[in-house]
Structure formats: structure tokens, C-alpha cells
Amino acid sequence: MSLPEKHRVLTSVVAQLSDVLAQMSQAAEATRKDATHEEAKPENDKDTRALEQSYLARGQAMRAEQLAEQKEVLRFMPLPTLSADAAVCAGALVELEDEEGGKRVLFLAPHGGGVETNIDGVEILVVTPGSALGAAILGRQQGDDVSVTLRGKRRTYVISGVR
Predict the structure, then answer these.
(1) Listed residue (72, 92, 41) closest to 105, CA to CA
(2) DSSP structure string for 62-124
């Protein structure tokens, strides 16, 4: 399997996060409007619907702001050129092979964990150092075995490529 260029992977991940950010921002704005709408005014002193909606809108806005900051960190993230014997670090594309010969490609990044992208037919999963799989591959090299428990099942991989 030929690994795609890292800048293309990063561009795709940032684009996906931009889409999620736009959706989150729209949801926060809609919730804010609902909380301040005339019909949301409390009917009595026990009616807390508007207050609850305002809390929800604030939480959504804070999450959108956090995601915007994370997207910018990724956008300007350096992408190191790694040799075959280099240790896995942020910005690395890592190819794993499982015990049955199945392969998966990971992109190690400080944010965006769980985002999946497809570049030239290659499925790539973003993992962060804080995830079980990200922590397991961090600092490892091509040829190393990696064991991790995912969804309650112990899995063993061999790092078959680092770029």
C-alpha cells in the first residue's frame, strides 16, 4: 500500500473539522436565538426553559470556539519528513498490520482524533497521543509490535511503515 502525501491528509482533516465547526456554530446560534425568542420568556418563576437553552447555547459556543482553535493548531502543524527508522511522532503517517494481515493507516495529530479520511483509496484514521492507539504507537519504530485494548478486545499490530 502506498501512503499518500501527509499534506493532503492534513488538508482533508482540516476541511472536515471546518465542516463540523460550521455545523456546531449554526447549532449554537439557533439555540441562542431560541433562548432569547419572545416565546421563550418564562411563564412563571418555575419555568427554566430559557435559562436551560442559554446554558446549552453557551456550551455549544464554547465547544465551537475550542474546535476552531484546534483546527488552527492542525492547520499550521509541522509535518516532519521521517526516515524508515524514525520514531513515530506528531505528524507521522503510520501503517499497521494486524495478526490476520489486515492493514490500517493512522495519522498521529494533537487534535482531530476519530476523524477518518480517504485519500487515493487509502482509509486514514486520525489518532491523538491521548488515545490508547496513539499512545501505543508514539515513539515506536517500523517493525515494532504494538498491543492495545480497543473496545474491550486486546489487539496486536506490527508497525509496517512510518512516514
Answers:
(1) 92
(2) HHHHHHHHHHHHHHT-------TTPPP-TT-EEEEEETTS-EEEEEE-SS-TT-EEEETTEEE
Give CATH for domain 93-162. Answer: 3.10.50.30
The model's pLDDT over 57-97, given as tens digits with 9 standing for 90+, comes to 899 999 999 999 999 999 999 999 998 789 999 999 999 99
- In whole angstroms, give the CA distance from residue 81 to residue 85: 12
Which grid coordinates belong to 85?
527508522
> CB 3: neighbour CB atoms within 10 A?
18
What is the C-alpha separation between 93 and 78, in angstroms, rounded? 13
